[in-house]
Every structure is written in structure tokens, then in C-alpha cells.
Amino acid sequence: NCLIHFYKRPTKHHHIMSNPATPRTPLRSLHPEDVRKTPGGLSLDIVLTPALRPAPRSACKSLTSSPITSADISEKLSNAATRREEVLQLRKENIDQKLAMVQNKKDEIVNEKATRTKEELDAKLKDSEDNKNFILKKTKDDVKAHLAMVELKMKDLELLTEAEKIARKIALDEDIMKADEKRSEQLEKRIKDIQEHVDYVKSVSATQEMKKKLYLAGLEKSMEEAGKRKEEAVAKVVEVAKEEEAKVEEAKLRREKEEKAIQDKMKAALIEKSGKVEENQANKDEMFKSKMEERNRRAELVRQNKLRLEQEGVDGTNLGPESA
Known about the structure:
Layout: E1 2-8, E2 36-38, E3 41-48, H1 60-64, H2 70-178, H3 183-323
Parallel strand pairs: 1-3
Antiparallel strand pairs: 2-3
């Protein structure tokens, strides 16, 4: 903030105001030490010189000037009309430039909003696609890990079965070598046990296969449902984007209508003002023309009276010696 005080310097010689040779310097020189710091900002004192009066206009110029003719009046009127047309043309050009600037600004705002909306929509679609790919990849990895675990368990079960078979066969051979009389009974019993074990292994394998099929079916179903939900979400996002575009288009049309109405109002006001200006200028021209004609008429009367007085003075001088 800067506080400036203006003071008038008193003068002792008042005749300087009427002297046309006095230089026109309204401000004194400023010094840095005049600037003071105050709680509200900077304070500066500026000292002004007394008001200077311009030189008086010469009065003899109007007496010696020749009377204005109709050609001069016509030339002045044509010059005034030309200046008036130039002023109107400049005003129209300024209005057109302002309207063009408003239109460019409106187009920039609409394009920027449309670009921003498109970028947001593309970002949302990209995020949705990335999430979908991530979920599918994770699901596939989980399925592969589960299948690998199932195969490992199946291999372990097969190795255990083979080991049991070998152990039972060795035990059977030992029993056969120890007791021939119980060979047939033990052999049948071992065969029966082996068969039961084989049946049990087949039932376990069938159960595991069924569980595997059920798990895969449930997984495919959940993946299909996830895909459907993702498609519905994408459709909703697209629908929202379309609604946004419709709103932007509607706002654009409404803005164009408003701007067109404003332009029509401005053009109507300009035409009305132009008509008033032309009417006022015509009235001024008429008044000026009538004043100039009156002035010429008076000048002509003065000239005629002067000639008549000069003729009367000449005639009186000539008659004086004759009467004597």
C-alpha cells in the first residue's frame, strides 16, 4: 500500500499564471527521501506547481478571416460524415472481434471438456480391463496349483499302493514258504484283500475325479458370472459416458442459443445507437449550417453598410467645396 499526499505550493507572484512564456511543468521533481514508511504502507508527498493558464487566443484572427463559403461547409460536412463512418466501422470491427474471441473461448472450453471426459472414460475402461485380466490370471494360477496338488497326491497314492502290494506279496511268499497247508486259504485271502484295496483305490480315484470335475465346473461358472458382471459394469460406464456426452451437447446447444440471442440484442442496440447518432449528427449539421448562413448574412449586411457609409462619406466630401 502506498499513501500519496498532494499539496499546492503557495506563490508570491500571481502574474506568473497569466504569462504564456511560463513552462508547463505541473509536478516538481521527486526525491527518495520524501518516501516514508507508515503502519499502513508507504507515504509520499507530491508538491504541485500553481495552475498555469494557457496563452489567450488572438481576437484579431477572427476579424481578418474571410467568410466561410458553402463549399467549406460542404467539405466540413463530408469530412464529419467520413469520420462518423470510420468510427462506426471501428465499433463494428471491435464487436466482431469480441464475438470471435467469445466463440473461440467457447469452442476451447467444449473441446477441453470433451477431451477430459474421453480420457476419464478411457482410463476407467483400461482399469476395468486390467482388473479383469488380473482376476483371470489369478484364477488360472490357482487352478493350475490345485491340479498340480491333485496329481501329486495321486502319484503318492499310487506309490503307496505299489509299496503295499510289494509288501503283501513278500509276506505272502513268506507265508507260503512257511506253511504249505495254509497256502490256498492265505492266497485267496490275500487276493481278496488286494481286490478290495484295488476297489478302494478305484473308488477314491473316481471320487477325486468327480470332485475335480465339480470344482472345474464351479470355477467356470464363477468365471462366467464374473465376466458378466464385468460386462455389465463396462456397459454402465459406457452409458454414463453417453449421458455425459448428451449433457455436454445439450449445454453446447443452449450456450449457442444464448450467445445468438445476445448477439442479436447487441446488433439491435448497435443499430439503434447508430440511428440515434446519425440523427443527432444530422441535427447538429443542420444547426451548424443555419448558424453559418446567419453569420454570412450578417457579414454581408455589415459589408454593405460599410460600403454605403463609405459612399456617403465620399459624396459629402465632394459636395462641400461646391456649396462654398
